[in-house]
Amino acid sequence: MGARTGQQFLDKLDSMRPHITIDGEVVSENLTEHPAFKNVARTYAQLFDLQHDPKFKDQLTYPSPTSGDPVNVSFLIPRTIEDLERRRAGIKVWAEYSNGFLGRSGDYMNSSLTALASAKKWFEKADPVYGERIEAYYEMARENDLLATHTLIPPQVNRSVSGSEQLGGQLSARIIEERADGVVIHGARMLATVAPIADELLVFPSTVLRGTPEDAPYSYAFAIPNDTPGLRYLCRTSLHNGGSHFDEPLASRFEEMDAVVVFDNVFVPNERIFMLGHPDLCNQFYSETGAAALMTQQVVTRTIAKSEFFLGLATEIAEAIGIDGFLHIQESLAELVVDVEIGRALMRAAEVDAKLNEWGMMQPNWPTLNAARNWYPKIAQRFPQIIRTFCASGLMALPGEADLASDALPDIEMYLQGKSLTGPERVKLFKLAYDASISGFSSRQALYEYYFFGDPVRMAGALVSSYDKTPMQQRIKDFLARED
Amino acid sequence: MGARTGQQFLDKLDSMRPHITIDGEVVSENLTEHPAFKNVARTYAQLFDLQHDPKFKDQLTYPSPTSGDPVNVSFLIPRTIEDLERRRAGIKVWAEYSNGFLGRSGDYMNSSLTALASAKKWFEKADPVYGERIEAYYEMARENDLLATHTLIPPQVNRSVSGSEQLGGQLSARIIEERADGVVIHGARMLATVAPIADELLVFPSTVLRGTPEDAPYSYAFAIPNDTPGLRYLCRTSLHNGGSHFDEPLASRFEEMDAVVVFDNVFVPNERIFMLGHPDLCNQFYSETGAAALMTQQVVTRTIAKSEFFLGLATEIAEAIGIDGFLHIQESLAELVVDVEIGRALMRAAEVDAKLNEWGMMQPNWPTLNAARNWYPKIAQRFPQIIRTFCASGLMALPGEADLASDALPDIEMYLQGKSLTGPERVKLFKLAYDASISGFSSRQALYEYYFFGDPVRMAGALVSSYDKTPMQQRIKDFLARED
Amino acid sequence: MGARTGQQFLDKLDSMRPHITIDGEVVSENLTEHPAFKNVARTYAQLFDLQHDPKFKDQLTYPSPTSGDPVNVSFLIPRTIEDLERRRAGIKVWAEYSNGFLGRSGDYMNSSLTALASAKKWFEKADPVYGERIEAYYEMARENDLLATHTLIPPQVNRSVSGSEQLGGQLSARIIEERADGVVIHGARMLATVAPIADELLVFPSTVLRGTPEDAPYSYAFAIPNDTPGLRYLCRTSLHNGGSHFDEPLASRFEEMDAVVVFDNVFVPNERIFMLGHPDLCNQFYSETGAAALMTQQVVTRTIAKSEFFLGLATEIAEAIGIDGFLHIQESLAELVVDVEIGRALMRAAEVDAKLNEWGMMQPNWPTLNAARNWYPKIAQRFPQIIRTFCASGLMALPGEADLASDALPDIEMYLQGKSLTGPERVKLFKLAYDASISGFSSRQALYEYYFFGDPVRMAGALVSSYDKTPMQQRIKDFLARED
Amino acid sequence: MGARTGQQFLDKLDSMRPHITIDGEVVSENLTEHPAFKNVARTYAQLFDLQHDPKFKDQLTYPSPTSGDPVNVSFLIPRTIEDLERRRAGIKVWAEYSNGFLGRSGDYMNSSLTALASAKKWFEKADPVYGERIEAYYEMARENDLLATHTLIPPQVNRSVSGSEQLGGQLSARIIEERADGVVIHGARMLATVAPIADELLVFPSTVLRGTPEDAPYSYAFAIPNDTPGLRYLCRTSLHNGGSHFDEPLASRFEEMDAVVVFDNVFVPNERIFMLGHPDLCNQFYSETGAAALMTQQVVTRTIAKSEFFLGLATEIAEAIGIDGFLHIQESLAELVVDVEIGRALMRAAEVDAKLNEWGMMQPNWPTLNAARNWYPKIAQRFPQIIRTFCASGLMALPGEADLASDALPDIEMYLQGKSLTGPERVKLFKLAYDASISGFSSRQALYEYYFFGDPVRMAGALVSSYDKTPMQQRIKDFLARED
């Protein structure tokens, strides 16, 4: 089949029977019609359609090496720097279409699968069969253009002990039975974003595993269809409040759902198991295979588009109400410019200094990308703050689409006009500002970026320990020893 | 009549016929039943009822000097430090009941009127009749326990020119006709909070006026009933999304509406006019009368209650999920403790160093309160950030009240329990955290505090220029001249 | 004798024979002449002289209850709030004389001794003799107006283990022999500020002690004369570079030395031992006696004077070069105003809400002061940054006193004048700015404030655990249980 | 001649007769022996010697296109990206040798001259003779390996008016006479760094010039020998306090002097004048020629070396005292890692996306470098703060070289050892930390970086106005217009 159309995506979605609870109701069919999912499903369908749009087709797809069908470029195993650039060019199309507000567009998990498949030999360290399975799964996902969600961290019950120690190990998803044809999983994990509209669920190694018998049940990697029996999703309430594209321009399009994942005696057949046991390998799952690098390439491409969005938005607002001449406004705009340029430079430098990894994949320079993913979560918090500071009370003196169609229109035209915009235009712009800086949608975005790769406080430790500081330390030693 | 009951407040509200546009509809009656207003009206009714609650009555009211009826303590003209403390004790009751989330409870504008009435002689500088009118209005408001909103700033059309210069002066509310029996006002102002449920609208001097003919139409102070002909309010959409107290614990109670105020040839009769012309006096309206000081006493009392709320909430969360032992969590808790103590100390010091002002009112020490109102807007931005950092993905792995009543309950009990809470208890606590740090309600609160007294960048300049720095400068001069 | 004169202080100093190493030399006599100590000794002498200055005498002293001689007011055991205010008034004189740059003026340790003596009964929990000794020592110190330094923390060798565990316990000062007439101490402690010009060294409990045999040798409190045999001080190099009061206005007056303290088999006689063993009591030494509260009253009084100094300095600079009209300059000035007012309010509130403690001492409200000492270390870091930002290149385009007396004078008069100052005046002002924001002296001040009470990261944990958060937590619980 | 040796540099310096006032003395000869200049002169000599060191020769030099002699690579006019990389490789040698602490090594102004000469045609817009002169001057500088200082900003007398308006225009250096053979300059400028040891002084256009008669005297660009009659330098006092390399490891090597520049009727001959009048061209002097880009390439290369130094230093300290396992220490280390990687990425991206400019020079991508120079001044302020936080009291418990040679050695060996270092080693390391975070030298470095390219507040405005924000604005416009 290859790259799907939006309709194909929606049809497949409607044919699935997942177990999804939201607002006290179980939804298992007609997902494309449910008010909490239909809009984001439609947006995702648009992404799929772009693959067939003559304007973007060449950027978004490449010919499958097996079928020859066009498949999404995020499945391309990069062998050269040009391949990496090609991947980025495709990822960028979706990122700019969604202005970076979709955190789980298919190319994210596709990038992970692509790196894992390219590291087939790494899987073979455990067992040759794992290498074959991951490759087969990757090819299946690529040829069918599947949308995967994933779930990583243990339930947040008691953070003073490790995930596997909470409540005597009765909480985290774990193997409770090993059978000849597969394993049975029981327990929960957090947090599957975009789960209700996904085709597949990837369940890869989580947190740090010890090589002890107690941790053995947590050493695994597998993938299952989203409507596997026993698999249940428990959703939060939607952040789209039902408003129009005018009133909720972001939430009405980009509200990806988050869900707790419950495994209730879920059977995983052997062909979907990519690793069992081998805690050491599990702990290196993302780093050694190159999956972290390819995923981060996708993420940074997306966050650049988001930073650019905020720079564009802030500039439009500043001009609209005539504040662009103030020094303190310019300082905030300069901050956004710098953020955009830093993001771009980190991406660019990681690409041009990419190197082939052990498995023959051209891997973007990891220390650069690792810095990028430690840097962005913090600066992203500033974006809504800047927008709020620019708009001030304009975010509250804000009627909506229905008001434009009412007798209030003359008042809006008169009193809500901008320096360079009519009243309705300014209201439309400020609705966007509102949805980017005030709405629940906007706050969830800030939270999401902050914790995207994990707790920044913990990530700092990981960055420091993995980073080669010896050349700098040697410089200090040499300087202290200098005799002049 | 004196202090009203909740029912009296609601009855009066239902008898009014204001012109309020929200979501494209004009609402002019049954305001207590409108979904956007009924909940906050009910909460305000509870505040009024507390005046008659045996537990709080003595704190919240004092006997009117004219009628002898109990009236709200925020109307008490303080003559002694004990009076100030009495005022604060009463204000604190409402502040703690609402945990600081109600920015326009009646005591706020009452405090303003109280100071203005006590400064009757200041008004007489312009004309003896103004002194009589402000006093009479104050007494009427006190005896009828009226709820006032107010509106201050010009429309935000083009901030590169002054409010009165925008669009050739055609935007800001201004006097367009002076008649024997009053004046006619036309134009708009921003931003009347709690307008839909108010009895009265106060329209006091705004921004800095020059003594030029061009600025004359903007030199005034008056008050009108909320359903005065020609007065129109244009609301934003509600931040309460219709959820229950469980799901939206703050927004379902404390969502005060904001509205643009449009004066369409509004006639203001003489007895409601407290100042006309006298731009110099207009510019000193808040500072010279002591109104700024009494209003800020109310505000600081309220914001202390809010800081305490966040400290309490953060502590509960930290214990609930077992993160209270981490150093970086303790740093954030310590930050909240320090904020609470600073707020309290500023209030306390302003009281004990209060002095009688020129008009015989015991005025809290202004430099202290002025510092408080420059300090709080910035630190308040940290509160939701801290809550988010504590809760992390717990804010997204968050089912709601309906889910508790569904088949999902066992999963919630198992996988969403806390270290010290059952699943449902933890969900309830995290819903509160969500409404304090993620929801549109929470973001509007942060924005509201940031701009409460005006743009902090501008306020800084005002603080510096009004502050007596000469003793510190003299210390520098003396030190430079020291011969030792 | 009572309050000393400067000359009496200097004479006593010259009669002492401490063992002080600085810049490779051992100094044991003529300390008042040593270039590294003479200036600060002179400044301290001025402080003592102020006790006899008719202008300040009444603030700085009170009649000794035993001798009737005037003694320093920091020895006054406060029994009333007025006593606390009296103490503060006296402390303020020295603080303003030194603009807060002297961290160890006598009133600091005096405050500690005063509280300890007032808590005689607390000492008696261990042994009645300790109560008598601490009282006797306090009285001796008061009547002789002694200047004490103290030393608290273990050597900084390996912070990954506790102080008593470093190098098998061979580093920290500890009891190595218990004799009938006293104990023998061996090991080191950091960091005795102002040690070279002190009369006495106080060695009180440090860090957290466990009730284990291993920690027993570290459970003690004693005081010894500064020239006790076996006691050695190892100084850093001086931060006064030898310049004049013009060129180094702060360092040439206020450079207090810091020293490592080495105990080489130091014998401490029984009468100077205030506690031995009793790790539980040792751990409460500062908190339970009220010593922390009285010391912090002194510190906060001092730091207010310092904040005021920076506000005055920044204002003078801004006016001198005509930058006071810029918005971003005003923001920094406003920040300093707010800091001054917060400091004052915390002090004031702690006083008016003081309460008698268990030992009959009027103790300033501790949670308020505890917040103050957690708040100041961080904001103090901003002061030199603000000064640098104001002065910019003016801190580098900065000739000195010798240049004013040279042929360069006309160039200085012409090209280094300010908007409101002559060239020489501006140079003098900027030399002060330099010494407050660029010099090693200024950086050491910032470091000193940051770590004054210990590592802020650790202090945060202590603040949180000692603070009563239950009322705020109860508010949350009540709110969650509210049915309305 | 080509690239000089250190000795050649020193000999030339000793042959010059500039007019330099420092500490009240005029120094005009034997500059290489003056205590304030000799150490930095020696360090500069080492830089020159590196040009002849077999290890670095090929990186630091290239064959002159005219003489064939090896000349410094900073004179290479880049025509290709490889040329840019070659320039950076050479610049990096000096930057790493000085760990980024030398702000005015020759390659800085060389880079400026190189770009200017390559933009010969730009100069010809004013007059063909200017093109010839700048080229000739560049070649002369290159072949003689001259060290230039420059001076840019007007005296800081009254910042509320423009430089040319201060004191009626009597302060800033200006043309007071135009003669047939040259011009006469009178007035002052700030701030010539490294002036006392420079060969030449470059005086290029400053601030923004208006095309008015009043601004005509300020429209010029020229270069003069450092000992031109009438040229006077007025120095600040040295930040090297005379200590050894052990005690002042940075200041004793890298203390570049700053000086006010006074032009007292200085005659500039025609051949040294590169521009006269043409305020429009003067305003574009750095941007249009590419000089800003090449200078910033040098600066960013230098600041990367400095960031790396601080990362290395912080890591060494953390390991030395066993604090590397603490989470909050790791956060600071991670911050430094991120800073290093961002700096590198900005440099790398600017290079790979370089383009030929109008004059045929391969110019690094300016928006990227412009972001870099707006970003660094702020983050550089954190470096000394981090070092202080790591070292804490260890920066004060710090004896020196003389103490190591004294009887205090055993105490140092015992009590000042580190976890992984002997006492003397730790003292040496901490002396370096001290000179990087506490000393006047370190503070001047922080100030210098902050204001390197001008006031960051003003630079922000320039960045924003020069940056092409239209693509981002278009994205917002498109999104608002999206119909889906």
Verbal overview:
- The structure is a homotetramer of 484-residue chains.
- The first copy, chain A, has 484 residues and is α+β, with helices and mostly antiparallel strands.
- Chain A folds into 3 domains: 6-17 and 26-144, 4-hydroxybutyryl-coa dehydratase, domain 1, CATH 1.10.3140.10; 148-285, Butyryl-CoA Dehydrogenase, subunit A, domain 2; 290-473, Butyryl-CoA Dehydrogenase, subunit A, domain 3 (Up-down Bundle), CATH 1.20.140.
- In chain A, 48% of the residues lie in helices and 14% in strands.
- Chains A and B meet through strand 7, strand 10, strand 11, helix 14 and helix 15 of A and strand 7, strand 10, strand 11, helix 14 and helix 15 of B.
Q: What's the helix and strand layout?
A:
The structure is a homotetramer of 484-residue chains.
Chain A: H1 6-15, E1 19-22, E2 25-27, H2 38-50, H3 57-60, E3 61-63, E4 70-72, H4 81-97, H5 107-118, H6 120-124, H7 128-144, E5 148-151, E6 174-179, E7 182-193, E8 200-203, E9 220-225, E10 231-235, H8 251-254, E11 258-269, E12 273-276, H9 279-283, H10 285-289, H11 291-320, H12 327-352, E13 355-356, E14 362-363, H13 366-379, H14 382-391, H15 401-404, H16 409-415, H17 423-437, H18 440-450, H19 456-466, H20 470-481
Parallel strand pairs in A: 1-10, 5-8
Antiparallel strand pairs in A: 1-2, 3-4, 6-7, 7-11, 8-9, 9-12, 10-11, 13-14
Helix pairs in contact in A: 1-2, 4-11, 5-7, 5-11, 11-12, 11-13, 11-14, 11-17, 12-13, 13-19, 14-17, 17-18
